[in-house]
TrEMBL record:
Gene3D superfamilies: 1.10.1660.10. Residues 11-58 form the HTH merR-type domain. This is MerR family transcriptional regulator. InterPro entries: DNA-bd_dom_put_sf (IPR009061), MerR-type_HTH_dom (IPR000551). The lineage of its organism: Bacteria, Pseudomonadati, Pseudomonadota, Alphaproteobacteria, Rickettsiales. It comes from Candidatus Trichorickettsia mobilis. It comes from the Bacteria.
Length: 97
């Protein structure tokens, strides 16, 4: 399919997800995960260049084993910290009333 699209300057998010065979939410995640990755926006819509597609392909190949891994322990620790801060704030408010 990419052979048909090779001469385009910009590709829509739907075209890119078809080319890369990944869902749109994973594509948007990769946009944020890649340093210095910029998407062209035209009238509020995302458009990708051939270079963008190749960069994402490379990222997928290099990190296919842990591309979308999520560090749940780090998130749980962060949630615990926020809950403790909230409890401290809540007790401070009750003392000051």
């Amino acid at each position: 399919m990419i052979a048909n699209l090779q001469y385009k300057k910009y590709y829509s998010i739907g075209e890119v997800t078809t080319i890369l065979q990944i869902p749109a939410h994973q594509l948007r995640y990769l946009e944020k995960a890649l340093p210095n990755f910029t998407v062209t926006k035209i009238k509020g819509r995302r458009y990708y260049t051939q270079q963008n597609i190749e960069l994402i392909k490379t990222r997928i190949k290099e990190h296919s084993h842990n591309l979308f891994d999520f560090d749940y322990n780090a998130v749980i620790n962060q949630i615990d910290i926020l809950i403790n801060k909230f409890e401290q704030l809540s007790s401070n408010i009750n003392i000051n009333i």
